[in-house]
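Milestone M4 deliverable, item 7.
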Amino acid sequence: MAVIVKRVERPRELKWYQAGAMLYGDWGTSKAYVLGIAFALAGHTSWFFLGLMSILTALVGVCYTMVCRAFPDGGGVYSSVKHRSQTLAVIGAFLLFANFAVTSAISVLDAFHYFNFPNPEIWAIGVILLIGALNWVGPSKSGNVAAVVAIFASVVAVILFVAAVPQLGHIDLQMPSRDLGRNWATFVGIILAISGVEAIANMTGVMVEPVGKTSKRAIFPVLIEVSILTFLLGLAMNAIPGLTGHTEDMLRVMGNHYIGPWFGKIVSIAFGFLLLSAGNTAISALVSIQFTLAKDKELPPIFSRLNRFGMPWFALIVAVLVPVSVLIIERDLMRLAALYAIGVVGAITLNLGTCAANPSIHLKKWERGLLAFTTMILVVIEITIAIEKQNALFFALTVLGVGLALRFLGKKVVLAPMPELASTVNLLTVQEAREISSLYKGTALVALKAFNPALLEEAALHVKAKGENSVYLSYVEEVPPSPELPSEMEPSRESVELLGKAQEAMEKHGITAVPIWQAGDNPGRMIARAARVLGVTTVVIGATKRSALINLLRGDVLRNLAHNLPKASHLLIVG
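Output delivered:
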């Protein structure tokens, strides 16, 4: 079969406040463990390092407003860096993989520290496996829940600080020693406060235009909360007399002290579930990275093969087993933080550095200078982590080594050629079909998931009854939920074969069929979008055969289609 590459069309529906809530779900979780780590490393001088880290966090956040503006179709490290170097982009993707692997491990582990469960590492491993099992059927309803959890946690953090204000006069603030090397090591030890900011760049491909304005409005409220509130909570932490330990659950201790044990439990619930949500998001991101690399032929094809629920099954297994393996080998929060930092700092450094050095990006002189300055700071931090944390360096090199070896094998090992299809099918995207809609006066669209002769027969009768001789055939290739899909994809062999057979079946009835291919994680909405863009008045679809449980986890296709279909369109269900 000749290689067909189609543009992946994604509706730009993500508003700034939705993007901001999603960003906080990633970026805002860091305070749950950064405060405890800072106090463990620096004691009552931790306020000083948290202040410096807040400045760096704000600096990185401002830089990402430039990245988002420069790459409106996806500004994540892989998408942006490959404009300069495909190999560097792949390295950046693997560094991000290392980051997300530890993100899921440390987030879920710390959640059970907040819940105060015994043996939190065992609970964490069990929940990661459970998240993997739920993702096997590709749950797509978690986005709104994650946003609610993020907002709830932010409100709880603000209440906690307000309650601490009256006692801030008793803060035991100490200045750090004059040992520059030791101070720098302490500062680097809490660098994971910047983790999560890169999530916003992955969303630009689905943001409401203009992307630069939307992303800026999403970033700044979260930037202010993450940088300023984390520092203020650090001051409140230093005002607790006789404070020791509690690296893993510092916010709960602060809630107990400033308001009472009942509020400490609320803090535990809020940040425990925020951390669990972050763990789930990280596993989804791990799947997305592997899927995108495989679709770009940077990993073997097995990483993009979907199960019957539209989830890349092998990529999901890897996305679950890697963080589980991390927790089996390492359970200490401080050492996990080092593993975490080397990946995220490396990925952010690559992203900002290549943007600064890319002459094709329109940037003001001060913007390019700020990107370069921030990159230099992050390079020194990354080198420091590599020198001082050999286990983190080993972990990053292992991920890079395995990933690049798989990339090499994927490019060198030639699979047995597939037999050519009997006929060539000219697949169209929705936009391409719209451009030639004047040639085909069809007002019906047939949504296909599998070859269904009864469905096609009923559709043909319907078209004939309306006195028409053309029809749209729609196939949605399901992909894992992710805001950063490849901008172009090769349609699967199954989709080409299905649309080809359906086209032949309709032609036997004297009807011209226009095959339309889409890729997305919500088939119901994608079909409705095609109907709206093409102006069809009837959508013909077969009855769903999925179980009630699958519909609960993934969403009912028919219900989503009916909800999003234009009011002027009718839904004809066959079977």
